[in-house]
Every structure is written in structure tokens, then in C-alpha cells.
Please model this.
Amino acid sequence: MITYDRLFIGGAWAEPGSPELLAISSPHDQSVIGRAAQAQPVDVDRAVAAARISFDAGVWRTAPPRQRISVLRRFNALREENAEKVAHLISLENGSAGWFTRAGQPGLTRQAHAYLKAAEEFGWEETVAPSDPASPVRSVVRREAVGVVAAVIPWNSPFSSATAKIIPALLAGNSVVLKVSPENSLSMGFLAELLERVDLPEGVISVLPADRETSEYLVSHREVDKIAFTGSTRAGRRIASIAGEQLKRVSLELGGKSAAVILPDADIEKAVAGLKFGSLLNNGESCIAQTRVLAPRSRYEEVVTALKALVESLKVGDPGDPDTFIGPMIRPDQQERVRAYIRLGIEEGARWSPEARTSPKAWRRATT
Model:
């Protein structure tokens, strides 16, 4: 049992506004694997206030870029040292197969290194010479941090999403409030532990697991200068409207409906083998998953046969089993959503076997 009964606010663990802890259940067997405090609006106020004070005081934003780079490099090294624990926690919470969560760890390292390299090469301050060499005038271009950043991430790949949000924002000198999904309270609690171990000044970073209502309170907060959001298109529209009303900066990474396009001269075996990872990685719960396959009618049967063979070859089960390729979906509502797509496919004429071509009853037997 893993318990986080406090919230990480401004770089320190603090008593939450509500003493009630959320039970975190395993998607695999529904057992309770942990309990964690969930942020309320009062906790958001405290986190944003700490971020504002630290930013206005300049304790982080005025630090030399090399100092900020050094701190974030130490954070990345700590994450690397604890890669196995990170992978384990994500599998526990999300039901993601162990092969996927472990395979993703080197990618997190490369991701962080790319940000660090960009920060090292970035022109934080540049002197621009006048067009007339005889002129004594010189212009200085200085890139400065935005301010308080509200970073909101989804549950399906928490460490990757968190890395993509907080490292660039912190490298630039911003103060950050990271809002994470309740489902990821344990892995993101561990993220907070890692952040606690590096030399970030007081107030610069907070990590708050919270529901959608509290998330909207955060992005609507008047002391937030920038919103960075990854999630659904519907939520993105709402956030964009809030940002527009308040004239605050916003960046959105939304939805995903990628297609695999198989051309008439394609090697079907290789194309379908690629879909093993292109469509089904992380249990198919990924915004970059190829959720549609577009194939020429002339090769339709080949593609269907190959896809059927691929799917039947994959082991579905306990994410902790090294032979499992696909684990359980994270929540019952996600499971029902997929079932609804299957039912819709059947209604629109989908088939699953030669028998089903002439027997609708076979479909009903297969999906009940």
C-alpha cells in the first residue's frame, strides 16, 4: 500500500485542504494499491500564491541559465536512477504492460536531454548590431520567463507528459503548478519526491492530483500567466475559451485520430507488424495510436486476415507478467467506451469470422 496523505505545494509537503484520501485501484484486479490526497481549490490557491511569490521575487527566473540547466540535469539523473520504480508505478496505476513502461524510460532520458541541449544553445540574451556600422546604438534582446505556468496533463503517459511540460517551463525560469490526473496520484507523488531532492527554490514547483473541476479552477486562476494542456479536444476548447477571455497565453495538444494508410503495393506482413506497436502500444490508450487502418479494396481481405492473426497472437492479461503485451484498460468507463465502438461496428456491418458473414447471431454470441 502506497500512501500520499499530503500534497506537494511550493516544493514542500503540506496538509491538504481535505483530509479525505482517494483510493487508487489496480486496473488488473481492482485491489486497492494506494491512497492519496486530492487537491481542492484552496490548495490551488496556495500553490499559485507560492508560485507567484517565487516568480516575482526572482529567486528562480533571475538565476543564470546554466544554474537552471544544472538543477534540471540532476532531476533527470534522479529519474534515470529510479527508472525501474517509475515503470512499476505506472504499470500499477494504468494497467500498462511492463514491457511498455520499461521501454519508455530511455525515451524520457532522450526527451530531457533534448530540452537541456536546447537550453544550452538558446540565445537567452543577444546584442543586435545596427545596420549602420557607424551608429553607436546597440539593441539587446533578452528572453524572459512568462510567469506562473499551469501545466495540465492526462493519465495515459504521465511521466512523459510531465517531462514535456515542466522541464522546458522550469528551464525558462517560470514557476509551475503541475495538475495531474487522480489515477496517477502514486507515480506523480513519486515525481514530487524526485523534485524535492533537487535544489529548486521554495515556491517554484507544485504537483497537484485533482479532478476536472479543480483543474478548471486552476486554469481560470487570475494569477496564472500561461496554460499548457494536453488532453481531450473538448477540454481544450473550454481551456482555450478561458485563456481567450483572460488574454493569457495557452498551448494545447489535443485528441488524436491517426490513420495507418496501406498502399496497393505495400508489404502487408510488414505493414501489419508495424501496427502491433503503432496501434496497440500502451493498451491502445495513446493519442498517437493509429486507430484507423485505411486499405485498398483490392487487398482488403489480406489486411483483415493479417490483422486478425496479429491480434490473436498477443497475450492479454496481468501487466506484471513479462509475457503480457496488452494489459487492462485503466477504468471501467474506458472499457465500456471500447465495447460501444465494437457494438457500433457490428451495427455497421463488421464481421469477425466467416460464420459471422451470414449469421448475425454469431456476432451477438461473441460480444456478450
In short: Confidence is low (pLDDT under 50) at residues 356-360, 362-368. The chain has 13 helices and 14 strands. The longest helix spans residues 98-121. The chain has two domains: 2-122+144-254, 264-366.
